[in-house]
Amino acid sequence: xxxxxxxxxxxxxxxxxxxxxxxxxxxxxxxxxxxxxxxxxxxxxxxxxxxxxxxxxx
Length: 58
Fold this sequence. Notes:
Keywords: Membrane, Transmembrane, Transmembrane helix. The chain is an all-alpha fold. The protein is built from two helices and no strands. It has helices at about 1-45, 45-55. The model has no long low-confidence stretch (mean pLDDT about 75).
């Protein structure tokens, strides 16, 4: 029984660690993309893009 419990514990620990690492990686990637693209678009295209979107929607 102890062996099975240990295996289960190891698997759950691996899943939790993997999920946490995956979430951290995805959040970091999204943050980096939003930071870089957000700054780039905010300086160059934000007024134009918002104007175009309002024009298309209207």
